[in-house]
Amino acid sequence: MRMLNINIPISEEILFVLKKDEKSLQEEARKILALQFFKERKLSLGKAAELAGMDKNDFVILLGKNQIDIYQYTDKELEREFEAIDRFVEDFKNESGN
């Protein structure tokens, strides 16, 4: 796979204010981009982890630290899940005679 480098000019003043060197800012920027693209459902878990430069397990931990759910249901998907649960409960009640 061909790799590309994306360059973003940043002043030394910004690095100073952030208390970062170029390498640590680059690593943090990759993680921030990966988190955002995953949150927006633009990247899968695996691809977001790759962008972040992490394995999937570590990226899942990073998601948790940033309060981003690993399961990103749409409203329609949630509705179907709740309907399935309701059907399961009804079937269980009918089978148990309650």
Q: Which key terms come to mind for this protein?
A:
98 residues; mainly alpha
Summarize the structure.
The protein has 5 helices and no strands. The protein is an all-alpha fold.
Care to describe what's here?
The chain is mainly alpha-helical. It has two domains: 10-67, no CATH class; 71-98. The chain has five helices and no strands. Helix 2 runs antiparallel to helix 3. The longest helix has 22 residues, at 75-96. It is elongated, with a radius of gyration of 21 Å. The model has no long low-confidence stretch (mean pLDDT 93). Pfam families: UPF0175. Belongs to the UPF0175 family.
Question: Layout of helices and strands, plus pairs?
Answer:
Blueprint (H helix, E strand, L loop, with lengths): L11 H7 L3 H18 L5 H8 L3 H10 L9 H22 L2
Helix pairs in contact: 2-3, 3-4
Pfam families: UPF0175
Family: Belongs to the UPF0175 family.
